[in-house]
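**User:** I keep going back and forth on a fold encoding question. It is easy to fool oneself when nobody else works the same problem. Could you pick a protein and write out its sequence and tokenised fold? Could you put it straight underneath, so I can go through it closely?

**Assistant:**
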Amino acid sequence: MSQEIFKRVSIRKFESRPVESSKLEKILRAAMAAPSAGNQQPWEFYVVTNQAKIKELAQCSPYSGCAANAPVLIVPCVNQSKLKFPELDEIDLAIATQNILLEITALDLGGVWLAVAPFTDRMQKVSQILELDDNLKPFAIVALGYPAENKTQQDRFDEAKVHYVE
């Protein structure tokens, strides 16, 4: 069983050192290994290292301020022209984003998922900052880097929420 699932926590404070491009490629490969409805793979990923853009993106929601000190942001987007099953696009992107977070953990990095979709105002701000084509819909911002805080995951297992149907 993958231990990353049980080690992953939301990290919001980062060291200032850059993340190696080889690690970023592994993270993006993990994202694109995600399953998707009908294998539509509707994703595109914007990797943002430009500090001015990072600061702007950190102001896209009331909860994204922690992104301002991250050395890298990944913005998963839905390419709406690739959709066979448009009603499942956000599910596909959620799975890919979870893969990003698990690979970040596997690489001894830290990260946090910051919601963009389905909030229209946040989606518009991100689209403007990144100058996205009209067919691209931003889904989230993942702030990542070397962690400057140490956290452990809580045990969230609750047997009362498990129901066996035999």
About this structure: Residues 127 and 138 are 7 Å apart (CA to CA). The radius of gyration is 16 Å. The chain has a mean pLDDT of 96.
